[in-house]
Amino acid sequence: MKTAGIVLAGGLSSRFGSPKAFAEWENRYFYELSLDALSPYCEESIIVTRPELVERFPGDLNVTTDIEPFMGQGPIAGILSGMEKLHAERYIVLPCDMPFMTADVIGRLLECHSSGVTAVVLDGKLHPLVSVWDAAALPDLHEALENGKRRVMDVQEKHGVRWIEGELLTEDEACRIFMNANTLDILEGS
Ligand SMILES: Nc1nc2c(ncn2[C@@H]2O[C@H](COP(=O)(O)OP(=O)(O)OP(=O)(O)O)[C@@H](O)[C@H]2O)c(=O)[nH]1
């Protein structure tokens, strides 16, 4: 079964103040850290970003933009666009703003996935973007966006999302690994 990775790297990064894909942690760009976490499990990965950022990525990477007419319509547009442009039977999706995500956690998430959609909940907080999707969800992503619905979770629920909780990682790990670097302050405090 072909598994592909999708790194969500669009959006405005308005809280962060500069494109989060090119924020750095220990001399690695965030997008590189996401690709590192995905690479052991994905034959190929694709980065879905804003048009003006495409040229900033190295030419040997698979980089694309949200498809029209859903450009910039949130993470759901990035997931749909990644699936449209890179064909696979299942996808591991990661936002580019979780720089401490590990390949080990992604491996455990994948092990928990059987069919439909699998995503993460930790301490009652949902992380719908850290997720595994069967390609069968693609028509429903389309339909949602065509109807102006942008909530990723609505599509996940339609596919009987399995929320993975304690089996994925310990409480100590969770806090840091699932840290969303939405602001520079959060990153600087790490
Ligand atoms: N491809 C794509 N990715 C997106 C889009 N909007 C957000 N993302 C990505 O989805 C993840 C979560 O994004 P958010 O933090 O909610 O939004 P953001 O636009 O990055 O940041 P803010 O402007 O501060 O809300 C990040 O990895 C973003 O890069 C979009 O319209 N298209």
Automatic annotation (TrEMBL):
Entry function: Transfers a GMP moiety from GTP to Mo-molybdopterin (Mo-MPT) cofactor (Moco or molybdenum cofactor) to form Mo-molybdopterin guanine dinucleotide (Mo-MGD) cofactor.
Listed cofactors: Mg(2+)
Record key words, sorted: Cytoplasm, GTP-binding, Magnesium, Metal-binding, Molybdenum cofactor biosynthesis, Nucleotide-binding, Nucleotidyltransferase, Transferase
Domain MobA-like NTP transferase residue range list: 5-154
Binding site for GTP: L8, A9, G10, K20, D66, D97
Predominant cellular place of this UniProt entry's protein: cytoplasm
Gene: mobA
Species of origin: Sporosarcina koreensis
GO MF annotation terms: molybdenum cofactor guanylyltransferase activity
Catalytic activity: Mo-molybdopterin + GTP + H(+) = Mo-molybdopterin guanine dinucleotide + diphosphate
A Pfam cross-reference name: NTP_transf_3
Full protein name: Probable molybdenum cofactor guanylyltransferase
Xref: InterPro entries: MobA-like_NTP_Trfase, Molybde_CF_guanTrfase, Nucleotide-diphossugar_trans
Subcellular location: Cytoplasm
Domain comment as written in the entry: The N-terminal domain determines nucleotide recognition and specific binding, while the C-terminal domain determines the specific binding to the target protein.
Binding residues for Mg(2+): D97
Similarity comment: Belongs to the MobA family.
Chloroplast among keywords: no
